[in-house]
Design a protein that fits this description.
homodimer, 152 residues, transmembrane helix (chains A, B), CASP_dom (chains A, B)
Chain lengths: 152, 152
């Protein structure tokens, strides 16, 4: 069976996972920097989701690296199903968190300066953008693996 | 080829589409009732997405009804692909709109009464809930059709 580029155990998948780790960490970093995020439910949700997606992507990046180095195949329907479902659930949570945070940032930017100083709001904005980009990579990973699933 | 329950042209699909129309219309109704939604970007986004999902679901409900009555099969990969992609895109937009609105409602409920009177905020809350339920049905439709796609 041909391996789909981007599915688990390929170099493209490893690159996608690395991208997810970097973007999620950046999102978490910019959100936590001001330590003011706990006043807003949406920001707390974003921090929680980013805290979930980082270890998940890290584990799968290690799995990809191991598969590439040892050149063994881990294309078993059980493992792939767990990866697809995990990726789908995490991508849904990431999208929800990113759009909630983006809408709150939009509201804060229009409101008074006392609610959110310009410097702090820009950080929140960058964090929401990073979360959106991380969602795109997560969906890509999920779709590539889903494409492979019926063939197993 | 066996038809998957919930895929296009079945009674379950017709029921899902009807549910989507009812929930999206209810969400649009509760959001537009107060006419104060245009002050918030997230609420405008929700209204736009609900305005897209209603005609889409209505068209597909008509297609389902026609297929059930005439007892013909419309299982062609081209049509199914358009339906799956349309459903996926609309469900992503619905989830983004619903979570943005929910986060804004949460923020408004904590803020001063002058920003959002209790009666108005409850309407927004109901609207966001309906949008979430509509998203669930939309994802279900999309997954049932996606399941059928590789078999064609």
């Amino acid at each position: 069976m041909d391996s789909v580029p981007g599915s688990v155990g390929t170099c493209a998948s490893f690159a996608l996972r690395l991208g997810q780790i970097i973007l999620s960490s950046a999102s978490l970093f910019f959100m936590s920097l001001g330590v003011g995020f706990y006043s807003y439910t949406a920001f707390c949700f974003l921090v929680t989701v980013m805290g979930l997606i980082i270890p998940w992507s890290f584990t799968l990046a290690l799995l990809d690296a191991y598969t590439i180095l040892v050149k063994c195949s881990i294309h078993q329907s059980g493992i792939l199903l767990v990866i697809v479902v995990g990726d789908l659930v995490l991508s849904i949570l990431t999208l929800a968190a990113a759009s909630s945070s983006a809408s709150i940032v939009d509201l804060l930017l229009r409101a008074d300066e006392t609610f959110c100083p310009q410097r702090l709001c820009s950080r929140y904005q960058i964090s929401a953008t990073m979360a959106f980009l991380s969602w795109l990579l997560s969906v890509a990973s999920s779709l590539f693996n889903l494409w492979l699933l019926p063939a197993l």
